[in-house]
Amino acid sequence: MSEKYEDPQVLDAEHITPPAVYDHAEDSVDGPEPTEEEWASLRESADSIPVSAFLVILIEFCERFTYYGLTGPFQNYIQNPAPPSYPADVPGALGRGQQTATALNTFFQFWCYITPIFGAIVADQYLGKYRAILIFSMIYLVGLIILTTTSIPSAIDSGASFPGFVVSLIVIGFGTGGIKANVSPLVAEQYRSKVPFVRTLKTGERVIVTPRATYQKIFNMFYWGINIGGLSAIATTEMEKNIGFWSAYLLPTCMFIPAIIVVVMGRKRYIQNPPRGSIFVEAGRLFRLSWQVKGGLEACKPSRLEVDHPDKMANVTWDDIFVDELKRALKACTVFCWFPIYWLCYSQMTTNLVSQAATMWTGNVPNDIMQNIDPLVLIITIPLMDRLVYPGLRRVGIPMGPIFRITLGFIFASAGLAYTAGIQSLIYKNQPELISAGIQIPSYIFIAISEIFASITGLEYAYKKAPESMKSLVMAIFLFMNCFGSVLQFALVSVTVDPKLTWMYTGIAAAMGICAPLFWICHHKADATDIEEDAIVRRGEQEDAYMAHKPTIAEYEKDLKQEA
């Protein structure tokens, strides 16, 4: 039995015994590792998902119910003036116009995707993912209370709603960012097997169970939970129209409480990796050394340094595997650099498409209810992809690597914005005749399908390619790409007015359409080495040895002072 790390919050996957400890059972499998012949003849298959993973998915469902329930009414809340009474044809409160509404929505998206960096550092280096999620949940709840109380009619009449709204955006964004960076790595950590193995199914078929296929399944289910929660906007947009915004914000606030309860009550079931400490100082030293020796990061492996540069070994605190992990993570980050244009496409769904629907005929339903077509499509499509399409393709020897899936996602996103540009052109040509908002449905379908291929795969890729000590941080870097998409959206605020909208949609579609083939050309070779790279993992003894000689943060700070 390998040495264990004492941690009262970390439990074995199969047995719940407080207080528990973390050992290195993650490499255990229920079959032999596949041979080269078996890789050539057997298909890949996903393993079963642990119960603890479904608990984390439940947390994410509650949080996303809250998030989308709030953001669904945001555009109308900011853009339109308060109606004289409810029910209202077009609900509103702040009356700041479409440009301000789009700008504030974009700022909120930017803020929500920059704060995960801080949440990731706190989790990876100090608290661990579980404790970080709990603390940021409390911050989130404070923001929800501010938003709800400042949206009541008396607050709107007194002018308190706008400053209250801005403060709530900052607090909620800080809370959701801290949760967002940690909850998706936490759900993946519930699956402990790191190596492929051969399993015989009840049908007698022998398959290779791989972490790649299993993580794909886990993140499909995780994203499915997100979009079930996202349907909350159907309720809140109806409530804003018929009752008022205070009720539309009160429902998500109340729904967030079960998320906190699940976090607390399920704490003994979650498998958790303890925080690894001074990872950034260690990575910084590694990069600095790579500039001093020939051969880059590869030459900085201790096994190489002992031979080529023994004088450099004094400050080496890493091992060969850490260097391989860091190289793999850097390679993944270059893949993420293509996502800002994609997130720019996606953000139109919650901003300008809502405003577009307001100029069309919607019958008796709110204009901002149309965006819920996206989660509805995902709820239907994700299980079909997970249970039929992906297994069927693997059965015939087409595993669909992550780079190929992301490329498809970019193509569908471009198609969605191109179609939206056509709708806007039709609106301009047929004024003042109203066009049914139902014509927007294909736009949302294209975006939803793009999420299956690009967004879900991005989450999966960020987790798989990150070192164990940097799971939350690499996930935060992937999410951070959304910030650059928001920056691009900010740059386009000046053209989010009539009659420029057609060209705005066309330009975004063209940019995404150009990025898709370029992305494939630059990165398609990574699919061929995907499984090989995923096999870079630590076994129990390696992890024990690494952590045993790894200095503490205090020791690092002492060394840095001496060097200075």
From TrEMBL:
One of its GO terms (molecular function) is dipeptide transmembrane transporter activity. It is a multi-pass membrane protein. Its main location: membrane. One of its GO terms (cellular component) is plasma membrane. It is found in: Membrane. Keywords: Membrane, Transmembrane, Transmembrane helix, Transport. The chain crosses the membrane at residues 133-156, 162-183, 218-237, 243-266, 402-421, 441-461, 473-497, 503-522. This is Uncharacterized protein. It comes from Umbelopsis vinacea.
